[in-house]
Amino acid sequence: MSETNHNKELQSAAVNTKEKTVTGLFWEYLEKLGGEAVSLVVSVVLARLLGPSAYGVIPLITVFTSLLGVLVQSGFGSALVQKKDADEKDFSTVFIFQLGLATIFFIGIVFAAPYIAAFYKNPDLTPMVRILSLTLIIGAVNNIQHAYVSKTMQFKKYFFASFTGTILSGVAGVVVAFVITAHTNNPVLGAWALVTQKLTDHIVDTIFLWATVKWRPKLQFSFTRLKSLYSYGWKILVSSFIDTLYHDIRTLIIGKMYTSKDLAYYSKGSTYPKILMNNLNKTIQHVLFPALASHQDNIPKVKSMTRRAMKTSSYLVFPAMMGFAAVADQFIYLLLGEAWMPAVPFMWIACFNYAMWPIHTSNLQAIQAMGKSGTFLVAEIIKKISNLAFLGAGIAIAVLLSFESTTDSVIVIAMSSIIAEIVCVFINARPNAKILGYGLFEQLRDLMPAFLMSLIMGAVVFSVDLIPFHIIIDSKVLYTVIELIIKVILGIGSYMLLSVVFRVESFKYILSTLKDFKKKKKSKKLAKQ
């Protein structure tokens, strides 16, 4: 692809921002919805085949690869999207730098693998760590492609790459799980199915992006360009590293202090709310940043877009998380089985935490898009210092109370994250009071309709638990299915009814946007004919 065509494609992304944003939201949501739907089916099959012990192994080793992955991939990709005049040399420079850095980390983790296994007193982890570390190099290859897709807002191409990778990796993981469970009862070896799934997903995603996205790296490297991008990107990189380290610290502590089953319950309890949250919130995040960055010189416009993102995402995420918490018992029992029921309390905690993410995301994306990476970094440092204090308090309480069940101790540690998330809301909102004139109280006023309606919906759905289905129906599976169906219908119905009765603005906006999108798609189809 010539540099002239490359620059034209980048410039065209700034035209018709609303239309491109809506289209991007459609393809991003479709990618998330389709991909996560397949992931949900695969994870259920693997969870039933492998059990909690095997699932508890993977978080232990992905801690290290995810942290190094942040160092390789974070920061520079955001810098490329944020930079208005990013050109061919910028993209190639970052590609070469990241690939070299990933290779160094890969070699380092290959040598460190035995020591990581020794830390957890499990020699079987050594080859798994080494194989998973290949994702560092693969991630460096496709990270710039992701940045290019975001920069030019070509989310349709990313949809096909990601969705195909999800399907093929799921098939590979299930096949390996069947083979392993048929020949061994060792739960640790069952984790190889999960390793296969993760590695295959990265490989297929990279191959399809390479085939569909026009951009190709060239032998162009500029220390001046790298330094310029680094001045913005290093703050985002450090912020992402701190955030990843903070969230992975719980995994490290639980994996070291308690059993692999406890870690599996903790990890699986947050997995499904995260899948649902990603469908709604991450879709907006991926499209919002480049859209905001294209208007960074127009503060009123950025504020308006940030408000819209926060109101719309909270309108969708709040009831989704409340509803998921209300059906947690039925969901875990029917999908994963009785063996996974200890994961339910962790799902409740995760639902509360993820409900806060639309507030975090909208504020942080605005800060980044305005080029305030220093402010972003300071906010991350303040948040993580305070959050670590809450984590330490949770660990101390768990140790002092000396629960008979190790799972109860892990629940106390997990609960410390609830207070941490609430504190983060205040910290993330504060900078935008000065940057955009959009402070915490105005944000809370925008969020209040969705919050109150979600509380009412939650009360309605949780009331179903008071019905003694077990007296009427003998089969536990049957009455659990009936409970789940009734809860889902009541939840969706009550929330929609409240939206119509109170004429909620976000509800009307979503309907209007969908109608406009449908009309434009129809007019384009007629124009082609």
- Percent helix, as a range, is over 70%
SSE series: HHHHHHHHHHHHHHHHHHHHH
Main beta sheet strand tally, sense and closure: none
Question: How much is the average pLDDT?
Answer: 79
Question: Which band does the percent of strand residues land in?
Answer: under 5%
Say what oligomer this is: single chain
Characterise this structure.
The protein is mainly α. Helix content is 85%, strand content 0%. It has helices at residues 3-12, 17-55, 58-73, 76-82, 88-119, 125-132, 134-152, 155-183, 187-212, 223-257, 260-293, 299-326, 328-335, 344-355, 357-369, 373-401, 406-435, 440-462, 469-472, 476-501, 505-528. Helix 2 (17-55) packs antiparallel against helix 11, helix 5 packs antiparallel against helix 7 and helix 11 (260-293) packs parallel to helix 14. The radius of gyration is 23 Å and the shape is globular.
Key features?
mainly alpha, 529 residues, single chain
Task: Provide a quick synopsis of the model.
With 529 residues, the protein is mainly alpha-helical. Helix content is 85%, strand content 0%.
